[in-house]
Each structure stands twice: as structure tokens, then as C-alpha cells.
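Lab notebook: predicted structure, single chain.

Context: the supervisor wants predicted structures on file for every construct in the current expression panel, including those that have not yet been purified. This is the next one on the list. No modifications to the sequence; it matches the entry in the shared construct table.
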Amino acid sequence: MSDLTKQMIYDIYVRLLHLNEQKANTSLQQFFKEAAEEDVAEIPKNMTSIHVIDCIGQHEPINNAGIARKMNLSKANVTKISTKLIKEEFINSYQLTDNKKEVYFKLTRKGRRIFDLHEKLHKKKELAFYQFLDSFSQEEQKAVLKFLEQLTSTLEAEQTDGTPDKPVK
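Prediction complete. Output recorded below exactly as produced.
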């Protein structure tokens, strides 16, 4: 691969990162709009809280450590978010009868509405993404998959060991 091609790939990668940041900023507004159309009055104020609700809805019963592991968040961050979600009545905490040490979470009716709306929006995005992928051949899709797997592994390794700029293998 030529240096020019590598530079073009890198430039597009940086552009993709910037677009992703911009998209993240508009996703919450889009969620608010959809919620209003569905008559969902109360909504968490950030996407991380919405994703915690989603994680709880997908994995009930789940505890703080489970949410932290599945979402790659610190336990302290999950505690802060879950405390707020309990106060806002999106989730409840409880203990299992056979385990009084662990605190588990489940969705309230209000939280279930957020979960359902979030699932609906994700399904729409997933379908659109699959339609986009259909424009590529099987071989191209395999190359994209390999690239994304290796890039994700590299970025995850950077986060866990703090080593920036590791080359992709």
C-alpha cells in the first residue's frame, strides 16, 4: 500500500472520528424528539444514562459491577449514574433473597419506556446500517470486519495499558 493511500485512510479515519463526535451531540436531541413523538415526558439528560437503562433492561437482574463491565465504565461512575436514575425513578434497586450483599437493578415502568424507545431507535439504525453494508461485496465486508476488529482491539489496548499509538497488527 502506498504512503498516499495510507494518508488518505488516516485522513478519512480522523474525519470519521470528528463526525462521530458531532453525531453523539445530535443523538440526544434526536432521542428527545422521538420521545416527544411517543409521549415520553421524562428522559435522562445524557446518553450514558440512557445506555445504562438499556444495559439494565437487557440484563436484568444486573448489579453495579456487571453494568461497569458490560459498558466499560468505572464502578464509581455506574454508582453515580444509578443513584441519579433511582432518584429520577427510572430504575429500582433491590437485593436477592439469597444474597443480601449485592444490590441489583431493574427498570421501573418509566425506565421501561426509555428502554423500549431506545431499542426502537437502535433497530432503525441497525437496519439502515445493514442496508449500507449490502452495497459491499462479501469480500469487501470481510475486509471491513477485519479492519474494524483490529482497530477496536488496538484502541481497547490503548485504553487499558495507556500505550498510545500502537501499530495495528
